[in-house]
Amino acid sequence: MNIIPNIETKRLAVKLRFSAEKMVKRQHPWVFSESIIKQNAEGGAGDIVIVYDNKKNIFLACGLYDPYSPIRIKLIQFGKSAQINEDWFVNKITLAFEKRKALLETDTNSYRLLFGENDNLPGFIADIYDTILVIKLYSHIWIPYLNHIVKHLITTTKCETVVLRLSRSLQTKGNLYGLKDGKVIYGTLKNEVVVFKEHGVLFSANVIHGHKTGYFLDHRHNRKRVGELANNKTVLDVFSYAGGFSVHALKGGATQVASLDISKQALDMAKENAALNTHTGKHTIIVADAFDGLQAWINEKKQFDIVVIDPPSFAKRESEIDKAKNSYARLAKLGAKLVARKGILILASCSSRVTAEDFFAISEENILSSGRTFTILEKTYHDTDHPISFPEGAYLKCGYYKLN
Ligand code: SAH
Question: Does 316 have pLDDT greater than 90?
Answer without folding.
Answer: no
